[in-house]
Structure formats: structure tokens, C-alpha cells
Amino acid sequence: MSKRAAAPWILMTPFLAIFGVFFIYPVVRALTLSCEQTFGAGHSEFIGLANFRRLADDPLFWKALRNTTIFTLGSVLVQLPLALLLALLLETPGLRGRRIFRVLLFSPAMVGVAFAAVIFAVVFEKRTGVLNRVLHSMIGLDLDYAWLQDHVMGAMIVAALWMYTGFNMVFFSAALQNVRTDVVEAATIDGAGPWSRFVHVIVPAIRPVAGFVVLLSVIGSFQLFELPYLMLNTTAGPDNRGLTVVMYLYQAGFETGDLGYASAIGWMLTILLVAIAGVQRWLARAEGVHS
Amino acid sequence: MSPQPASPSAPSIISAIPPGGWLIAVLAALSMAAIGFWPSPPTRDRTMWTFAQPHYVMYGPIIDRWNAANSPTIDLTMLGLVPMERRMLASFMSGTRSADLLEVERRIAARAFTGPLDAVGFVDLTDRLKAEGLLEQINAPSFSPWTSRGRIFGLPHDVHPVMLGYRSDLVEAAGIDVRQIETWDDFARVMKPLMKDADGDGQPDRYLLNMWETHDDHLEVLLLQAGGRFFDDSDRPIIDSETNARVLATIVSWCNGPDRIAADAPDFTASGNKLKSDGYVVCTFMPDWMCDVWRHELPGLAGKVKLMPLPAWEKGGRRASVWGGTMLGIPRTAARTPAELDSLFAFAKHLYCSKDLAQELFRNGRIITPVKSHWSDPVFDEPDPYLGGQKPGRMYIDLASAVPARTSSPYNTLARFRMLDALVKLSEEARRTGTFDRAALTERAMHYLKDAQHQVLLQVDNNVFLRPPQGAEAPGE
Which sign does the torsion angle of CA B69, B70, B75, B76 carry? Predict the structure, then answer.
């Protein structure tokens, strides 16, 4: 190999070394680990696809998947429309204090998950929690009503709503600012009302950003861990009602010590997210062709 | 020929630096100087990690005295519980060195017992403990959480007997004599007058026991006291036992229905402390260390709290349980030669078995030592003004031998949570169907416990090192 041909490889060597050690090796090791049964320090046994077969029959895995899906649906179906609505309100021409509202709505995203989890754990507390106190004085709700026992995922969705609605609103705001005003004005002149303008002009214009935000929310929601972990005092809550896929992975790997099974859960999650991203891309492409 | 650019003179460079740049440069210079001249602690031969701030404070003077006269010298470091667990496991898995002495909590230590005995990351201390007579000198149940397959991997730090802490101001004002209470049934009957509906909303404003169906610690305290267990002596799950079912049924009847006596005032939280201060609950499970927690977190209750032994499940039954536990272990990576092990064990024994520490543990943490020869020390007979002048040291020591033995199974946490799931399901079924009869609940509890047993077995049976010998029938199946 000539010096000239070798030069790029030499220059890329540091990157390739780091990439190999910190990305390629862990991925390959996680793959082999998912086919092993691990027993404490340094002992494992190759068991083929048994961990994946076990996943199929594991009620806790399915419960974790169901809980995570509920949270994801809550995020996508409640949080994102609300974020879009707030963005539309903030982009209303002539609105005063737009920047202040934007900062106020975005600020929960800056405080960190741990902070939000502590706040909401206090809010949803039995007997002494703010929510129960308010509802008790307003409608006589039982002070001992256990939100974090009977409505765990609902409580998580509300906490995430507070944290991330403003964050997603910023994406929608940016997209709305890029909608061509002449097109909107033309539609108005042609007699289109607000709803028609929204459906036929604004939504098509912000669709790429909306698709990106949906995908980001879905991936983020499927990776849910810190919020329930901290809100439920490092447990999965009563009867595992706050158990998410990543939390189950953590429990299997770091509490039960079964790293092989934890890796299998990780791979299932990866496959699921890749599939969702694939479907999203396919839908976006189909929409593009249709338009 | 183009003119040569004039090279910048020194004053022009200085004047080109903005004031902010100067500020950053000065701060950087000061930081470097501070780092350079900061007095570094003297280098020690060996390191010990602990996870508890009170331990760190108590051990300091003892270790200083050791370092002044002995070798190896020890450097004590405090780590959070989770970082310590991560580092310990990473060290055990990779065979690399972490600390030379690890003080670990029960749940973390159990993580080391997953594989074959010869791969446990801690040094097996059994023969050494026998040879030095420590098995006889230390309270026997204190060894159980650190004993796997008959081998002992740590020196016990404590006993942690559980008593019942009660609001003596409320109980005595109601004219109740707690000496009448021998069993849990007595407890409910004798204390019942304290459950009053002061605001007339149809709900009692005070409950007798701080306990809830979602707290795994409370479940384990009651279960162990009743003689229930998660695992048998060979670490096989025995979750679906009659005793466990009876405990679950009783807890459900305490938390729901006409015989409800329990309410939730969570420990270690501001809201829970407020409820305790308000007298929402009369009694709380009180391991020895909890006395110190209350002393610091609930100073307003000084003189209003007293201790009594746990009511037994049946007449003549066990009046104590156990909650928490810590050990000092020596990682294999730290003791590569017999001489290294000798020196580390000498320090471990000095620290944990010293009279100084026994006194410190009790004075500052209300923790009683597991070393039986120290139990006659006058410190344990000192009255505690916080506890109404009672002598908590002597009271806890009197119960030390009654503390139930515990499992060291690495699947203990899993079993606890699966059993807690069973408890929550049973409780919800009781509320849904209005069934609060204990006999009926016990039958249903068994149904849920069988499911929990199955789930734990799925995990345990995958571990070839914990499988029963071929041909042996697994208990509970």
C-alpha cells in the first residue's frame, strides 16, 4: 500500500480504535451475552436462544412492555397534540409576552428527571400529597387515595407531560415559524377558515418536523426508566404497575444478576425500536409519494 | 513585494486581552496553585469502603488509633450504596482490585453469592472464624445473611433486632398498659380504643400500626417473626408455605375491612414524619438503628416514644424480628497471599470486635454490637431520655438471641418483590370482593403465593450452581 493510500487509514486509526472498543465490542458482547446464562462473577454457560424463548413466556416482560406502550401512547396522543396546541397559541400574530411564555413552558425540561420525579412523588403522595389535599377539599376525595398504587402509569404520563410538553413545543414552534406566510394568506383569501388552514396548509408544512418529534417521543418513551424508578422509590411499584422494559432490564441485570437475560431484553427493545423507526419512515415515504 | 506585517509587541497582546480573559486567566492560575499546594492526605497501605455516613464518622478515630500503632495503615472512604455495589460487582466480574475491605449492606452482599462457591468475590472466612473462636463470641443469627452454602464470607456488624416503638404519650393518656399485650390479637384488642374518629367523617384519624401492604421491609419483618421464609436452608424458594399465606392474610386484614388497624406513614420521608408527629399512627416497627433515625428526624417526639417487644403471632411465640444488616468482607483480589489476608483480617477483627466501636455504635447510632462479650458494658444500661428513660440497649440485647436467621440467597430481593406482588393482589381482591375473613384470605393468599413461587423458581432453576441434587424434590413444588 502506498503512503498516499495508507494516510486515510492512519488518520482514522484513533477513531476506529475508540469506535471498536467502545461501540463494536460492546454490541457484539451484548449479542453473545444474550445467548448465555450468567451466574455471578465470571461464570456463564452458552444456552442458545433460551433467553429469548423465556422472554416470550415471561409475564413480567409482557407487563413491562404493556406499561411502556401505555406510557408511549400517553406521550404521543396527549403530550404532542398539547405541545402543538401551545406552539400554535404562541405563534399567534400579535401575542404579547411570547418569549416569557416560551421560557416558562420550556423551563420544566431544564430541571432534570430526578427533580421532576421527586416533585411528582410528593404531589401524588397519599394523605399529605398536594393533589389529594386539593381534591379532598374540592370534591371530598379520600385523602388515602393511592395514585401511585392504583394509577401508576397515569401518574407517570402526567409527570412526563409537565416535563416534556414545553420541550416538544419548541420543535413545533420552530416548524410553524417556517411555514410560508404567503401560502397561509393565499389560503385565507381563498376562503379557508382556521381549521382548513390548519389541516390543509399548516399540518402538511410541519409534517417532517412532526414525524421527527413523534419518533423522538416514541424512542424516549420506550427508554423510560428514571422517572418511575425514582417516583416509586427504586421499585417497580405495587404489582409491577410501574415496571417498564428498561427497568426490567435493569432489574434482571443488576438486581437479579442475570446479565444474559438482561441482554436479551435489551435486544428485544432494540428490535422493537428499529421496527417502529422503520414503520415511521415507511409511512413518511408513503405520505410523500401520495402528496 | 508586499510589506511584512508588523509583529505584535508585548503591550499590544496584553491590551488585546479583554477583562473577562484576564479573569479566566487569574482563576485558572489560582486553581492550579490551589491544587498544587493543597495538602494531600497521607498515603495509606490499604483502603476500606463504607456506605454509611454514621459509620464513617464512628470508625474515623478508631482507624486513626490503629494507623498510629499498626500496619497496614487503613484509608477509610465513604461511597454511596449504589456506586459501591457497581464497583464491587465490576471488580468481582473482572477480577480487578477495588477496596481491600468492603463494608456492605445485606442486599448488596447477596449479589456476590450467585455463582459457585470458589468464585464468590469475598474471602471465605469460615475456618478463620472457627479457629479464632469468633463463631461463639458473635451472636449466631448475625452470621446468616453472610453465609452461603455453609460458608461465611463476612464479619457481622450488627444484630438489628426489631421492637415496636409506640407513642407512650397517647397510650398512657388512654390508660393502656402495654404489658397486657403478648400477641398481635392482644395488640389489636388492647390498643383499639386509640382508634378514634375525631372529625366525624366516618374514618378513624389514628391507626394502631404503621405498616402497609406496599412496603417490602414491613412484610419481611412480620414474615420472619412468624417463622415464614423465602428460602429453605438449601436456598430453594419456599414462598408458597402455609405460614407465609397466613402472614399475608393477616396483613391484608390489618390494612382493610372492619378489622383495619394499620395505616401508611412511610419511613424516611417528610410526609411520613409529619404523620408520625401528628399521631396518625401509634406504633412503628423499630429496629435498633431506627431509634437514632427518629432521634434526628423527629426530635419533637422526645420523651413521647417508648419501646416494647413485638407482639407474638401466638402465645409464647417469638417477640422479635430483624431489619437490615451490614458486614465487613475482604475481597479475594485484596488478599492474594496468606500474609495479606492475616493483616486485613486482623484489622477487620480489631474494628468490628473492639469495645470502642461497640460503645460508639450504641452511643451514636443506637446499634447493638453482635459481640456478646460486650453486652455487659454499662453503656447498654444507660437510660435514653428520647425513649422516656427506657434502657434501649438492654431491651434490644435481651431480644438478640431471638432474632430470626435470614437467607443469603442472591434471589432474596426477587422473592421479596414477588411476594409483595402477591400481597398487593390479595389486598385488592379483598377490597373488590369484600372478603376480609382471615381463613378465606389465607386460601386465596396461597393461590397468589404459588404464582410467586413459580416466578422465582423460573429464575432460580436457571442457576446451575443453586440447583438441588439430581433426584431431590424441590420444596414447595
Answer: negative
Q: Which of A35, A37, A239 to mutate to test the interface with B (most CBs of B within 10 A)?
A: A239
Domain B46-156+324-353 falls under CATH 3.40.50.300 = no
Beta-carbon count within 10 A of B11 CB: 8
**Overall domain count for chain A:** 1
Nearest to B464 among A42, A45, A58 (CB): A45
Q: Which residues are B307's β-sheet partners?
A: B165
Contact check, Cβ <8 Å, A41/B121: yes
* Strand segments (E) across A27-160: 36-38, 44-46
Assess whether the previous peptide bond of B72 is cis (omega < 30° from 0): yes
pLDDT at A263 over 80: yes
Q: How far off is chain B from A139, nearest CA to CA, in Å?
A: 14
Residue A153's CATH number? 1.10.3720.10
Q: Does residue A25 sit within a domain? A: no
Residue A275 counted as domain residue: yes
Looking at domain B161-320+405-460, its CATH architecture is 3-Layer(aba) Sandwich (3.40)
Kindly list the residues from chain B whose CB atom is less than 8 angstroms away from the CB atom of residue A59. Answer: 455
| Residue A213 is assigned to a structural domain of this protein | yes
Range(s) of the domain holding residue A281: 34-290
pLDDT class for B203, splitting at 50, 70, 90?
confident
Q: Which of A143, A256, A258 to mutate to test the interface with B (most CBs of B within 10 A)?
A: A256
C-alpha to C-alpha distance for A268 and A273, rounded to whole angstroms:
9
What's the pLDDT tens digit per position in B52-87? 988 999 999 999 999 999 888 999 999 998 899 889
ipTM of this complex prediction, to 2 decimal places? 0.79
Kindly report, residue by residue over A192-248, the tens digit of the pLDDT: 888 999 999 999 999 989 999 999 999 999 999 999 999 998 889 888 999 999 999
B46-156+324-353 and B161-320+405-460 share one fold:
yes
Interface of B with A (CB under 8 A): 85-86, 89, 92-93, 95, 111-116, 119-121, 203, 213-214, 216, 263-264, 271, 274-275, 280, 410-411, 413-414, 417, 420-421, 424-425, 428, 455, 458-459, 462-465
Q: What is the pLDDT of residue A42?
A: 67
Please give the single-letter amino acid code of residue B335.
Answer: A
Q: Which amino acid makes up residue B413? A: T
- Name the band, by pLDDT with cuts 50, 70 and 90, for residue A281: confident
Residue A283 has pLDDT above 80, yes or no: yes
pLDDT at B388: 95
What pTM was computed for the model? 0.84
| Residue extents of the structural domains in chain B | 46-156+324-353, 161-320+405-460
How far apart, in Å, are the Cα atoms of A190 and each of A183, A187, A197? 10, 5, 10
Q: Any idea what the Cα angle at residue A19 is, between residues A16 and A20, rounded to 5°?
A: 80
pLDDT at residue A288, rounded to an integer: 67
